[in-house]
Amino acid sequence: MRRLLRGGLRLAEFEQLAGESGLRHAVSTRLGGVSPAPFDTLNLGLSAGDEPRNVEENRRRLADALGACPSELRSCHQVHGARMVRVEDQSADELRREHADVLLTNRRDRWLSLRFADCVPILAYDRRVRALALAHAGWRGTLAGAAGAAVRGLTDAFGSRPQDLLAAIGPSIGPCCYEVGDETAEQFLGRPRGVGRRPGGKTVLDLWALNADALSDAGVPVEQIEVARVCTRCHADEFFSHRAAGGGRSGRFALLGALA
């Protein structure tokens, strides 16, 4: 990933997607907002416990940096699954009532947005048919197949071919830091990658590998999958991390994308 300053905010973008003229995208950081600790400062999540007025101002700042209006940011109620919603002409309020973790669109100027604090942000883009999907995948969403659902959604809804897709996996907790219990790890046994052991017997999940494999299994060529390899717990000064907050309250950063 590369960092950039846009509209006074520090953002990030994927290297292989940065030159795509038909796509606008960004990953927000935790920097440049108005929220106090422990949500400092650019918290975009209303469910974390921050004051709504702070979140509204942060979203306004982010929208300004993207050249959009806050009402143009389309999101949903994330539930750690793989349900998809196709974004067309629904209002932002209508979409927020949808329980889903994958957003799809082929409409221009619809800013899709999902929020994260250790879970895996996934973007898939089809330059041929001009379609876009965002997915949110923690361990539950990874197990449910959110990454593969994004690919299937683009294929079923818009006629995308998996081999045409460019995909990216954003900042999230890495295998360096994601220790899990045996009960969680056992659900991923049999996968070629993703479950490891640390000295001392601690089990770790590699959500980056698991989701990259899911995209590849769905037909996306490996060389067209960019993995940021930025661990949110290691880089908690730049991105929100639930684990770095000691399992306590944390803000949320966002993955955003729109067709130009």
Question: What this model shows, in words?
Answer:
The longest helix is centred in the N-terminal third of the chain and has 15 residues. This protein has a single domain, classed as CNF1/YfiH-like putative cysteine hydrolases (4-Layer Sandwich), CATH 3.60.140. Strands 1-2-3-15-7-4 form a six-stranded mixed beta sheet. A six-stranded mixed beta sheet has the order 5-6-9-8-10-14. A three-stranded antiparallel beta sheet has the order 11-13-12. The protein is α+β, with helices and mostly antiparallel strands. The model has no long low-confidence stretch (mean pLDDT 95). It has six helices and 15 strands.
Which structural traits does this protein have?
6-stranded mixed beta sheet, globular, 15 strands, CNF1/YfiH-like putative cysteine hydrolases, 260 residues, 6 helices
Layout: helices, strands, pairs:
Elements: E1 2-6, E2 9-13, E3 23-28, H1 52-66, E4 73-74, E5 84-86, H2 92-96, E6 102-105, E7 111-116, E8 120-126, E9 131-137, H3 139-144, H4 146-158, E10 165-169, E11 179-180, H5 182-186, E12 195-197, E13 203-205, H6 207-217, E14 225-227, E15 253-259
Parallel strand pairs: 4-7, 5-6, 10-14
Antiparallel strand pairs: 1-2, 2-3, 3-15, 6-9, 7-15, 8-9, 8-10, 11-13, 12-13
